[in-house]
UniProtKB/TrEMBL annotation:
It comes from Aequorivita vitellina. GO terms for molecular function: beta-carotene 3-hydroxylase activity; iron ion binding. Residues 10-141 form the Fatty acid hydroxylase domain. This is Sterol desaturase family protein. The chain crosses the membrane at residues 6-33, 54-73, 79-100. Keywords: Carotenoid biosynthesis, Membrane, Oxidoreductase, Transmembrane, Transmembrane helix. InterPro entries: BETA-OHASE-like, Fatty_acid_hydroxylase. Pfam families: FA_hydroxylase. One of its GO terms (biological process) is xanthophyll biosynthetic process. Belongs to the sterol desaturase family.
Amino acid sequence: MTTVLWILIFIVTFCIMEFMAWFTHKYVMHGFLWKLHKDHHHKDHSSWWERNDFFFIFYALVSIGCFVGWSYYGFWAGLPIGLGIFAYGVAYFFVHDIFIHQRFKMFRNANNWYARGIRRAHKIHHKHLGKDKGECFGMLFPPLKYFKK
């Protein structure tokens, strides 16, 4: 039963992270921490590192905190929660940073329905370079309207 519960917590955490990505993007990145996110929409430097990458570090620290809680303090749900956050971060990195923004030159020729929908949704978001008017949604599961044929 414990294994089933851990798997369920892992899946629920992964799904909650899609909501957190939307919420953080809409109300934090395009809100009071726009200064950190702005260089993602309009690159104003020559570095590979973006100030926007601090959001990745924040969620990595949350995941690590869950592992520490599990390992040292007996917080049994810390392991599946930490793994769920970590798994979402890996998926987000592959979809957003590698596939969409090509920070590493991989998956350039992917052209299936999901790839086209993700690219279309992200292009709509990046159409606006400013803080306002950028449509915000989760990264892995944007609205179905972007998956038209």
